[in-house]
Amino acid sequence: MSSSPILVVKNLTTTFITGRGRLPAVGGVSFELNADETLGIVGESGSGKTVLSRTIMGLQPRSNVELGGSVQLLGHEIVHASEDELRTIWGTEVSMVFQDPMTSLNPVMTIGKQISESLRVRLGMSKADAKVRAIDLLKLVGIPSAEERYDAYPTQLSGGMRQRVVIAIALSCSPQLLLADEPTTGLDVTIQAQILNLIEELKSKEKMAVILVTHDLGVVATRTDRIIVMYAGRIVEMGRTRDVFFNHRMPYTRALLESTPKVSNPSHTRLITIPGRPPDLYNLDGGCAFAPRCAYATDQCRQEAPSLQEANSDGHLFACWNPLPVGTSPLNQQNSNEPNGASNEQ
Amino acid sequence: MTSTIENNEVVVLKPEKKEPLGVFFWVCVGWLGVNLLAAIFANFLPIWGPQDSNNYVDLNTGPSFSHLLGTDDLGRDILSRIIYGARVSLGVSFGAMFLAFFIGGIFGMYAAYRRGKLDLILTSVSLVFLAFPSIIAVIAVLSFWTPRSILKITIVIAVTSIPLVYRVIRAATLSAATKDYVLAAKIQGATDRRIMTKELLPNILPTAVSFVMIGIASVIVVEGSLAFLGLSTNVTTPSWGNMINESRSVMQVNPWLVLFPSLAMCLLILSLNFIGDRIRSYYDVSEVKL
Amino acid sequence: MIKYLGRRVIALAVILTIVSFGSFSLIHLLPGDIATVILGTGNTPANRIALYKQLGLDKGLFSQYSTWLGNIFQLNFGNSFIDGTSVSTTIGTALPIDFEMILISQVMAFAIAIPLAMKAAKKPNGLFDRIATGTSFTMLSVPPFIFIVLLVLVVSINLQIPGTGPASFVTFGQDPFHNLVSLVLPSIVLGIGSTVVYFRVLRSDLVSTLQEEFITMARSKGLTRRRIMWRHAFRPSSIALLGTAGLNIGGLIAGGFIVEYLMQIPGIGYMLILAINKSDFLLVQGIVMTIATLIVLLNFLIDFLFGIIDPRITRD
Amino acid sequence: MSNKKVLLEVRNLEVNFKKAGQVVSAVAGLNFDIYEGETLGLVGESGCGKSTTGRALMRIVEPTNGTIVLDGKELTSMKGRELRQERTKMQMIFQDPISSLNPRRRVKDIVAEPLDCWGSAEGDERDRIVFDLLNRVGIDPAIYGNRYARQFSGGQCQRISIARSLAMRPKMLICDEMVSALDVSIQAQILNLLEDLKEEYGLTLLFIAHDLAVVKNVSDRVAVMYLGKMCEIGPSDLMYDAPAHPYTKFLLSAALEANPDSIQDNEVLSGEPPSPLNPPSGCRFRTRCPFATELCASQEPLLTEVTPGHSVACHYPLTTVKA
Question: In CATH, which of 1.10.3210.10, 1.10.3720.10, 3.30.450.20, 1.10.760.10 is domain C88-309?
Answer without folding.
Answer: 1.10.3720.10
